[in-house]
Design brief:
The complex is a heterodimer.
Chain A (H helix, E strand, L loop, with lengths): L3 E3 L4 E4 L4 E7 L7 E6 L6 E6 L3 E5 L2 E6 L4 E6 L8 E8 L7 E3 L3 E6 L1
Parallel strand pairs in A: 2-11
Antiparallel strand pairs in A: 1-3, 3-8, 4-5, 4-9, 6-7, 7-8, 9-10, 9-11
Chain B lengths: L2 E5 L2 E4 L5 E8 L5 E7 L5 E9 L2 E4 L5 E7 L2 E6 L8 E8 L6 E2 L3 E5 L1
Parallel strand pairs in B: 2-11
Antiparallel strand pairs in B: 1-3, 3-8, 4-5, 4-9, 5-6, 7-8, 9-10, 9-11
Classes of the chains: A mainly beta, B mainly beta.
């Protein structure tokens, strides 16, 4: 069973702080890693993708991947109340697979 | 640019009634298409995926079925709904190994 684990939270951070979201996965053959943001009652929205070890930055978001540790994280700098949402980690289920396995998500609350 | 549509947006159906949810994608050809269900307090569960017209793979045995009658159309159906079919149904697309993009979803309540 291919698994993606996330801390369900809620994770509360003050406005302006760095929010750190973590995800571990079980399949060593996974090659593609994604972070989605889901507001309550809405569909998931892709915010970051990462395919190789290291950091990838896009605006206030940084995705970090460590394949040896089977660990992927998302950092949100200068957190804003509008960042309050559930963040889903997704991993392709195996080498060459189109399918994604999703974690259950971490609920982030940014306190003004 | 590509857009993905789902309808209806919300649906309330009695137990035992049939179901048909539709998803269409614009602005791309030969996409991979996916149906997910998100039940309250649970993660996204992949139900079906399709890599081409008439090609459907089922991930979870259940009373749901899917069809892909056209390249950019994906339909989720049931002959008789169960209470446990309630949830948020999401259609998604991607092209090969790239990122998946989700439609707005259909919220189904079975009473």
């Amino acid at each position: 069973q291919k698994e993606v684990e996330q801390n369900s939270g809620p994770l509360s951070v003050p406005e302006g702080a760095i929010a750190s979201l973590n995800c571990t996965y079980s399949d060593r053959g996974s090659q593609s890693f994604f972070w989605y943001r889901q507001y309550s009652g809405k569909s998931p929205e892709l915010i970051m993708s990462i395919y190789s070890n290291g950091d990838k930055e896009d605006g206030r978001f940084t995705a970090q991947l460590n394949k040896a540790s089977q660990y992927v994280s998302l950092l949100i700098r200068d957190s804003q109340p509008s960042d309050s949402a559930t963040y889903l980690c997704a991993v392709n289920v195996g080498a060459g697979s189109y399918q994604l396995t999703f974690g259950k998500g971490t609920k982030l609350s940014v306190i003004p | 640019s590509q857009t993905i549509h789902q309808w209806p947006a919300t649906l309330v159906q009695p137990v035992g009634s049939p179901l048909s949810l539709e998803c269409t994608v614009e602005g791309t050809s030969n996409p991979n298409l996916y149906w997910y269900r998100q039940a309250a307090g649970r993660g996204l569960q992949l139900l079906f995926y399709s890599v081409g017209i008439g090609q459907i793979s089922s991930e979870v045995p259940q009373n749901l079925s899917a069809s892909r009658p056209q390249d950019r159309q994906f339909i989720l159906s049931s002959k008789k709904l169960l209470l446990s079919d309630s949830g948020f149904y999401l259609c998604a697309w991607n092209w090969r190994y790239n990122e998946q993009f989700f439609g707005p979803g259909t919220r189904l309540t079975v009473l």
